[in-house]
Design brief:
There is one protein chain. The protein has helices spanning about 15-25, 30, 35-40, 60-65, 75-80, 100-115, 175-180, 195-200, 220-230, 385-400, 405-420, 425-445, 460-475, and strands spanning about 50, 125-130, 135-145, 160-170, 190-195, 240, 250-255, 260-265, 270-275, 285, 290-295, 300-305, 310-315, 320-330, 335-345, 350-355, 360-365, 375-380. The protein is α+β, with helices and mostly antiparallel strands. The protein folds into four domains: about 1-120, no CATH class; about 120-135 and about 170-245, no CATH class; about 245-385, no CATH class; about 390-475, no CATH class. The strands form four sheets. The chain has a seven-stranded antiparallel β-sheet with strand order 10-9-8-13-16-17-18, with no helix packed on it. A five-stranded antiparallel β-sheet has the order 11-12-7-14-15. A hairpin with an 8-residue loop joins strand 17 (about 360-365) and strand 18. Helix 11 (about 405-420) packs antiparallel against helix 12 (about 425-445) and helix 12 runs antiparallel to helix 13 (about 460-475).
């Protein structure tokens, strides 16, 4: 409700997330779907966490009020209503959380309290069936993201508030198991699990089963029918009275940048975003078994089984940098993450990520110019690599429509910065970067010529190089 996440209809053509959020914040029925007091008190996992970067970052007010974790119903209620003092965002600012109405929340709270207090009579048999094995949104993590400064802006915020999802396999893609089996936690119901993951693996079709179509699983329909008729249900490999086990690794891929992300399995099945030409809407395609695609905040996310992964393709959509994370989650819940951090990107940039057969780690082949020929093959790195960054910047300069003399002059500037960094003279590298910046800023300050000359540095290209230098200076020390 706070962001309108996954509430668009027809890819936003009928209603987008911004207006769905406005509808939900004024709809009492939507408040009734929020977690209740008893649910928050019973479930150990926090629905919201906060990450602090710097003392003055954008999560400071949240942490000052709630701490790094919301771990009580009182804090949860205060957060939904913006008790820490956040400003209600504009309608289109879906990356920022809105403040929910105390009046509507109070009405739904009364309903929840009465439902929580209800217990079924002893003569009533209650059965709760939960879907399991599909990555399900379990909580949100708010963190400070380095803000992008609009072209031509003299002053802009250093950090912006962003959020990223945290997933669990303990759900059906929409509802987590503790919610689906809520009454059984007090011993008032029998509980069953439907192993949707296992079912999808054995029954591959274009529409994998999850929350929205769980009743299309024939074994579940047979179970319901037998139960209603007071018959003994047939044994099913997908319906159990104990928690199913996960024996395979999961990949959780994320990208934060102006790029598209598309995953493919060995058979060419695709999971990602499809935007048909000549149409005003896009939709998520999830043809890889037990995969999912979603966008949240500034990030794009793909979840899929590791054994279904073949490659990921990236395509630049704007100027900036991208960070790609690949988290491998083992069956025991532990995980490790491989990252490619702050890689320069333009609308020409293409990249392909595969698994290196020797190291078994991801490798990224980067095509700076979009000509189909990789210019760099990169290994994951947990930190920013200024040398690789500058080499990619050089390749970007070489692709610009400039004279050979201009390209050579710009390349020399970049080479001199590289040499300073390699020799450990960071302050000298910063000074040379600042001089390059000053040159570009002077170019941007000049009025546009009435008749632009060919092979001259355009303001668009100057802004591109300036943004790259700013990112470099933000990361070297």
């Amino acid at each position: 409700m706070l962001h309108g996440y996954d509430q668009e209809i027809l890819g936003g053509w009928l209603i987008d997330e911004a207006h769905a959020r406005e509808l939900g914040r004024n709809m009492l029925g939507a408040f009734g779907l929020l977690p209740s007091r008893e649910y928050i008190n019973r479930v150990s996992a926090s629905p919201v966490t906060f990450v602090s970067g710097l003392l003055d970052d954008v999560t400071k007010q949240f942490i000052a009020r709630y701490g790094p974790v919301i771990d009580s119903y009182a804090e949860y209620k205060d957060f939904l209503q913006g008790a820490e003092g956040r400003t209600d965002p504009l309608v289109g600012e879906t990356t920022l959380p809105i403040n929910l109405s105390p009046t509507l929340f109070s009405q739904s709270e009364s309903l929840h309290d009465s439902i929580d207090a209800w217990t079924p009579p002893t003569s009533m048999r209650v059965i709760e069936v939960a879907g399991w094995g599909i990555d399900t949104l379990a909580s949100f993590e708010y963190y400070p993201r380095v803000a992008s400064c609009p072209a031509g802006s003299l002053i802009c915020d250093v950090y912006a508030l962003d959020e990223r999802p945290r997933f669990t396999v303990d759900g059906d893609g929409t509802v987590v198991v503790p919610s689906a089996q809520y009454m059984s936690s007090n011993g008032n119901a029998e509980k069953y699990w439907v192993d949707i993951k296992k079912y999808n693996e054995a029954n591959v079709d274009l529409f994998g089963k999850q929350h929205k179509n769980i009743l299309e699983i024939n074994n579940l329909l047979d179970f319901i029918s037998s139960t209603i008729q007071n018959l003994e249900p047939d044994d099913s490999p997908y319906i159990t009275t104990i928690v199913p086990t996960n024996n395979s690794n999961i990949l959780r891929l994320s990208i934060h940048s102006p790029v598209t992300i598309d995953a493919y399995d060995k058979d060419g099945n695709h999971t990602g975003k499809i935007c048909p030409p000549n149409y005003d809407f896009c939709y998520a395609e999830e043809n890889i078994v037990n995969s999912s695609y979603l966008e949240f905040g500034e990030g794009k996310y793909i979840n899929l089984p590791e054994d279904e992964f073949s490659k990921v393709k990236l395509q630049g959509t704007d100027v900036g940098t991208f960070t790609y994370d690949s988290e491998k989650v083992l069956p025991n819940g532990t995980s490790s993450t491989s990252s490619f951090i702050d890689i320069p990107v333009t609308t020409q940039t293409q990249a392909e990520i595969t698994i290196n057969p020797t190291t078994q780690n991801p490798q990224l082949k980067l095509d700076v110019t979009g000509d189909g020929i990789p210019d760099f093959t990169l290994a994951p790195s947990a930190t920013f690599d200024p040398i690789t960054y500058l080499q990619i910047m050089k390749a970007t300069i070489d692709s610009l429509d400039l004279t050979k003399a201009q390209i050579r002059a710009f390349d020399n500037r970049v080479d001199n910065i590289i040499k300073s960094i390699q020799s450990g003279k960071i302050n000298k590298a910063k000074l040379k970067s600042d001089k390059f910046k000053s040159f570009l800023e002077k170019k941007l300050a000049k009025p546009d010529p009435k008749k632009p000359k060919p092979k001259k540095l355009s303001k668009t290209d100057a802004q591109l190089l300036l943004d790259m230098l700013n990112k470099l200076l933000d990361n070297i020390n």
